[in-house]
Every structure is written in structure tokens, then in C-alpha cells.
Amino acid sequence: MGILWKEKIEKAVGVYAHIPYCVAKCPYCDFKSVVSRELPEKRYAECLLRELSSLIKKEGFDSSPRPLESLYIGGGTPSLFSPASIERLVSFILSAFTPLKDIEITLEANPDTVDLEKLKGYKRAGVNRLSIGFQSLIDAELKALGRTHSADKALRSFDAARSAGFANIGVDLIFGVPAQSVDSFTESLQKAVRLGPEHISLYNLTLEEGTPFHGSYVKEKNRSTPPLPAEEDELGMYGAAVELLGEAGYIHYEVSNWALPGRYSVHNRRYWSGGDYIGLGSSAHSFLSAPGWGRRWWNENDPALYMKLVDEGGVAEAGSEILTREEAMTEALILGLRMLDRGIDAVSFKARFGVYPKEAFGEWASLVKEGLIGCRGEDLLLTPAGVLLSNEVFLRLKG
Ligand code: SF4
Q: Residue of the nearest CA to atom 8 in ligand 1?
């Protein structure tokens, strides 16, 4: 990490605004999202603004406004909200900080909740980056995932986004989906690449406790239909993606993320670099790296309770933690390794903790011997083999 980048992330802040509503609940999802017949759009949006005003006073940002590097409106399904609500949100949040000239403003969109007019409205509202949740471009897989859109709708939403003027679009795909094979996953990926998105995220389906998928595939021991792919097929999908996206000119800059040069997600990079961010809305998390080794807090999960608490007292904090030096170091090591192009930057690490990464991470030498991590001077990085086994490396890091 260069010194300039370090200064930038230390002074600047990112804001995440969570919109927790969805059209339907996907059977694999354990996010705190709710399906609401009557979308309380106006009231919820006002609560986000009220919460921000309270936090700005509480954290003392009103006396010295922080530079704002990124705003990310995620969910849930933020594209259920009208362009008017998004515009109000964006303009209020920007006015509360000093936005950087090249601020990144992302909105997550689901293909079946957008059309050209709505996308133009988001563009006018100041959104300059879209993240579209394709999940798959094969209809049978979308059906198995319980998604409400078709592959054709996903492709048309991308075209509409380009027509609306978005020059920075990310798309998400999931691998390890029921009914998926290495070939069908590769087909989805090829279709996505042909569109030329600036950013591609690939997520491995996880079976979270309490979800219908967990019941079907863990409790039923994968006897449900369609079945999940075998673990070696999942590895094959990831491997195929590394090859295909590399050939297409995408940089594999984070374990699950690829981007065209210069099109990394500024907001997500802030999370991985240990930068400050403020989370607004139900279940949102916030992190400030000072004072001490950092403080994290999180909001109530239930949107109705969130709104009630904000109405009553301006904030809806459900819990918080103050990091110890050891916790902050372990986080910095894991997050640093996730950034494949950059790794754990030894200069920044030493400046923050007073020791080099190798001194803080006793097992580094054995992981180097096993070919899972490599060194660039004092910096540590995951090797291609380490990327495939990254979860194992992170577990060993946690000790
Ligand atoms: S659309 Fe996304 S947030 Fe909503 S239920 Fe489906 S996976 Fe969860």
C-alpha cells in the first residue's frame, strides 16, 4: 500500500446505506432482508438521514467534516426504492461530508426491479456505479436459486444500464449452485464477460444455518433435487474463472473480485484496507480505526425496530466492540492477504502496529514452504495455490 493511499484512507471515510427490503426471500439468503407488501420507503429513507445527522454530531464530524471517498447503497434490494428517494439520500449524505472529486457512488440493483427510465433516474441522482446481481445467466440455475428474474432479464438490465449512461458496472455471479456444472458456470461467465462489465464478483454459495437451503442440503445431506455440485467441481469453477477472466483482461485483485484496470471497487477496498466507514440502516456495521485500535458497532437487524429506535433517539445501535491490538493485527493480516495484487503492505503494517507482518504472523514461514503464501520483500501475499485454499490460510492466521 503506497503512503498516499494510506493517507487517503486514514483521513477519508466511506458510507454504507442499507436498504433491507426485497421482492421475495431467496432460499439461500441469511441477510437481514424482509419482504414487505407496503414498502415504507419514505419513512425508512428519512430514518437513514436522521441516523446520519445523529452520528455526525456524536462522532464530532460536524466540527471537522471528513472527506467522503465512497457511498455504497446496498441491501436487500435498493433498486426497489425510487430515484427520488435515492436522490434525497445521495444529496443529503454528500452534503454532510466533503466529497472527493472522484467519489464512487454505487447502487446495488436486481434485474427485475429496474428499467431504462428508473436507471436514468438513478444516474441523475448522482449514482455513478451500478452493481447488478446476475447470480447466474442460466435459467435453470436462477430457478434453483429461487430468483425472480430470468437470464434474459439480467442481460437486458445490463443493456439498459449502459443506455442510461453507466460507464462503471459490476455484475455478481454465484458458483456452487444446485444444478450447476463447470460447463454451465463457464457459460454464464462467458456471457457476462461478453457484456464487458468493469467489475465481476464471484461468490461461492454457502449454506447458512436457518435458511431453507441449509435444511435441504445439509440436513438432507445433499439428497435434495437438484443436487449441489461436488466440491471438486466448485474448485473447477473457480479455477476456470481465474483462467477465463485473466485471459479477458480482468485483474484478480481480491479473492472474490476481478476488475478491469482502474475499476476496483473503491468502497470495498476501504473495508479490506482497514479504512473508516459509517454504516446506516438496519443491520449496518460501522468501523472507525481511531482512537486506539479501532471501534466497531452495528445496528438492530429488524427494520421496524430500527425505524422505531431512530425515531425515538436518532440511532439504533445494537452492539459494539473495541478492538485489542491482537484483534486489529489479525484483521489487518487476513484482509491484507485477501487483496491479491497488494497483499499485506509491510510499511503500513509496521507504521500501525510497530512490527512487520512476518513478526506478527508466526506461521508465515511454514505457509511459504507449503507454497500457500509468498513474500515480496517484507510484504506477504497469497500464491495462486493459496488463493484456492484461502479459508485454510485464514484459519491458521486466527490461530
Ligand atoms: S435479493 Fe439478495 S438480499 Fe434479497 S433475499 Fe435474495 S439474496 Fe437475500
A: 29
